[in-house]
Amino acid sequence: MSDGFTRSDRKRAERIALLERSAAKIFAQKGFEATSFDDVALTLDLRGPSLYHYFASKEDLFLGCIRRSATEVFARLDAIVSDTNLVSGPRVTLEALFREQILIEIRDYPEFVPLFFRLLIPVPTLQSEVLQIRRNHAALFERITLLALGSQTSLASDDRVRLEIAFGALSYLPSWYRPEGALAPEELANRMARHLVDVVVPVDRFTTGSIV
Amino acid sequence: MSDGFTRSDRKRAERIALLERSAAKIFAQKGFEATSFDDVALTLDLRGPSLYHYFASKEDLFLGCIRRSATEVFARLDAIVSDTNLVSGPRVTLEALFREQILIEIRDYPEFVPLFFRLLIPVPTLQSEVLQIRRNHAALFERITLLALGSQTSLASDDRVRLEIAFGALSYLPSWYRPEGALAPEELANRMARHLVDVVVPVDRFTTGSIV
Amino acid sequence: MSDGFTRSDRKRAERIALLERSAAKIFAQKGFEATSFDDVALTLDLRGPSLYHYFASKEDLFLGCIRRSATEVFARLDAIVSDTNLVSGPRVTLEALFREQILIEIRDYPEFVPLFFRLLIPVPTLQSEVLQIRRNHAALFERITLLALGSQTSLASDDRVRLEIAFGALSYLPSWYRPEGALAPEELANRMARHLVDVVVPVDRFTTGSIV
Amino acid sequence: MSDGFTRSDRKRAERIALLERSAAKIFAQKGFEATSFDDVALTLDLRGPSLYHYFASKEDLFLGCIRRSATEVFARLDAIVSDTNLVSGPRVTLEALFREQILIEIRDYPEFVPLFFRLLIPVPTLQSEVLQIRRNHAALFERITLLALGSQTSLASDDRVRLEIAFGALSYLPSWYRPEGALAPEELANRMARHLVDVVVPVDRFTTGSIV
DNA sequence: AATGAATGAGTGTTCATTCAT
DNA sequence: AATGAATGAACACTCATTCAT
Description:
212 residues; mainly alpha; Tetracycline Repressor, domain 2
């Protein structure tokens, strides 16, 4: 009845997960170049070279970080789409999506935005991996936006501008929001998501499916 | 009646200006750590150590960069405020401000956003200098926004969120806009500025100064 | 009636033999420093640290290699001496010795020459062990040469030079001979051995024991 | 009346020459991998990283070493060929060539043989550079040998074997010759060169141009 | 017996900074 | 003013070796 994974396999996977999460935070904080192997290793009471048991290189470590982060974040966003899409119409889905994204950024994965939207990465391979993830992320929001706008093909020039405004707002959020302030993360997520939907799909543009 | 500046003083100041502008672009492109003294010096056909005739350290060079950039950008934004404020009311001023900021970002100072909104700077001193400039920059927009909203004291929670949405849009703009595309910078500036004003000062909120 | 060796002892000895032979080839190919424990271990599907069950250190592994190689090679050369010496006179023995040495080098133990004549070994202990083996090897040829020359005490200065020419030829052989070429190893061995005898014991110098 | 080289250029060139010669000796002694930048730098009272003012990498340093050595050695051998060729016939030239090569090896450039004939170099680029130099070196001797043998096209199989015997003797020479011994370098060169010519161009094979 | 984990020592390389010229 | 020369500090990466399992 073995699942093919020995206990040591699991231990190792956990270790890797811990390291990748730790590294994601440090990379997000200090940038790719300024993050050293010792920085990452010391968070688990290891010495720098020990990381080579788990990652073949600094690039490899970074790849692990962003892939794990992306996977976890996409899982949450995809779940939102699945849960709300058919029930309540695309406008509601889009708002829920914004809300979820906001919570991810300021409550659950503070390293998400720095990692994917701020880091300057001197390695082309990694740079394009990051860009690909960003493209996938944008595509998800764009898909729902298209549905909500009722357009069938692609975004009009002005629609795109407004969507990019929303993206900008999202990527800027961790730069100013402080959870210690008056607004709880959930409260902010509710309000800001509403605003963003209004920006991306102005009320006069929204074509409710039900109305004739 | 000398002005106290010798010819060599002027030469030196010009040299410094050139270096700072050059450095600003390189810092913006590669980040603080990845930018070397040689990188900067070579753009003026100098060798790295020569920069020490003009800057006491890498930090000092960076400081010069951001202060010069900030000065130049603030000059343009201040000019907009002075030119339009009294004539046409704060809403128009705000829109003009957005327009100007957009042109600065995508046409005239492409290094502005990377320098002040994306760079991870490992030196606390520099980090806070950048933050201070950001704060000043935000304060300018906030002042006009307050006027346009008719509030007299400070921004309400929701107003702040909408203003931050606009800031986000502005700081994200260089990440997606390509001047080679269909939209000329000026055209984009016009459209986007209008959208941003709508976000920050919704029409139903705008209190025209003229109406009693 | 056990011989004092358990089955596991034999297994272990076999394992060691395999490892030493494997290591000899790798050392010969890549040099002492460039050969890692993992390199050697992987040839037997082991991991690097496992070698410590068989060898106390890298030096120890290397020692094992060269001692085993030396033993095997000396056995073959000694056999030649025993087989041919009394029967046909020292000149024939010397030629057979050269022939055997050549076959060892290019057909049976390609690692012999690299291991003992080319490797730079940064450990003095190992270096002198190698030198000792080389000295023994040379002594064997020198003994037979002395017999063939009819001298009784030691080599004259010129005789030594000619013998070293032969040694040089032997140690250089693997650097140029390619078995894929026109000459089969055995054919080359025959021809080259004859030349070498001519060099070391010129015909006019050879004192046949039988002739009055 | 400038020759286009400033004083600092000359200083630099001298520094590089010193470093390359020093490095050649150390490389020859310890091998490529075991030679560190610090090893080389310390011989000139420098620290390791200082070498990067003169060489872009370890490979570059090594390349410099072998090219300089090759150039200097080839100059001497070429000079011999030019000086003796027409005057005394190819057999004499060949003997002079052997003599010169021997003096190079044991008196003037002790690092020549280790550098080109013993080192294991883990970098393919460097490996092939070394091989190319070896090929050029061999080609020089082969050319004169062909002349001395009177063959017009290429070496017969047996001629080649005898030439390789000579090459082997030459590459082995530094392994056994000690200048402290009874034989002065020049004396050894004379004797050994004569032997080598006898090996490569046996008297009965030598076709004197003048004799009918 | 075998090995994953861990590490200290070492190496090539980069770079801000100093200094003499 | 400009720069070659030099270096200490830092860093990614390798590897022989130890140890617990």
